[in-house]
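retry 2 of 3: previous attempt timed out while embedding cobalt (II) ion. Reduced batch size to 1 and resubmitted. Inputs unchanged:
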Amino acid sequence: MRINFTETVLRDANQSLVATRMRLEELEPVLSEINKAGYYSVECWGGATFDSCLRFLDEDPWVRLRKMREKMPDAKLQMLLRGQNLLGYKHYPDDVVRKFVQRSVGNGIDIIRIFDALNDTRNIRVALEETVKCGALASAAISFSVSPVHSLENYVKTVRELESMGAGSICIKDMAGIMSPKQAYDLVKAIKESVKLPVIVHTHCTAGLAYMTCLKAAEAGADIIDTAVSCFSGGTSQPATETLYYALGELGFETDLNINAVKRVNDHFLPLRNEYFKSGLLDPVVLTTDSDCLNYQIPGGMLSNLISQLKMQNAMDKFADVLEETPKVREDLGYPPLVTPMSQMVGVQAVQNVLSGERYKNVGNEIKSYLRGEYGTAPGKINEEVRKKILGDEKPLEGRFAEMLPPLFDKTKAELGGKARSDEDVLSYIAFPTVAEKFFEKRLEREENITTYTIERID
Ligand code: CO
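retry 2 succeeded.
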């Protein structure tokens, strides 16, 4: 029996616990240690890193990637990509998706984990094919959710399709941390029996299930689990690398992990974590267990969102009604997984339905786009009556939304002119226009300051 580990401290743990605020200079000294620790892969880029680097850290995300590549020459560097949405929630045309994949691999990424919130494989295909074409490993992820249509049969069907598309591994991505040990066991087993690919399990400790879930997943034959070094584990983050190494090792699982190196990695992050506690960047609340989501079948983040919406409107007395309405809205919409952005959309709609006294009287633009099919195909059947009430006789989209979008890369590059110094800059701009533009300006200022300084010194 073997099990391997993907270390998430650089990306998901960083994102889940400290809002991706760790700076490259804080990470850099430990990278050579991570490089030697025998992880299956190191998740270090994508997701919110890109946005956070540009917006808050005044850091070029591409420079961060190249630095990590340089300091971790042996490790497999992994990134997270939201299929046709890349790093955000908007759909991009295919030329941008392909270019983004090309430059990610070109700058050092080995594995791209690609997912779509609705598990619509059409939103995964272009990124997946391009990843394979670039010689990297495409790890196709299925978003885990619980609903009548999220059955083992449907997951297996999706996974088979992803295999035929060229996926090199399958990840079960439980971003809300709601997957129970039994669900993990059954799902891993079903996938292992249907495809020949390595299976990875990604979950969060939010609801307190993750250690048990990983254990049962390993017993069912999972090949890789996502974990974070202990001082950045738990709560909304992943379970601890060292703890699962210990527990699974005792049960006879062999790993490639160099536990002494892992310890040194943890030693590096411990004082940083303590600093984040002190500065308030790391809120102890995110490290606690939140089991409400198990009672309500609503992810923790979404629940607190509902509460804050109701408080803002002075309507906490309607909380029970909203809790009852939320699963109904989800059913009407064909059971989208309650993850960003669907969780917010469903939540806002449920609150609207209750407070306005009439269901679907007020409907946001996002829900309209969703009902038009712009996000992809819903996992289940959309309630036709609801669709009619909101969109009238408008027909839903036939093909894939991204096909209707004209190519964007060359056009943007031409428009940016000298502001963008590389194709990477153009991609930063396409992903986060306002933030990237500010970053470019600051970068220029910084360089001018350095030049002046140098000249003064020479004089
Ligand atoms: Co995650």
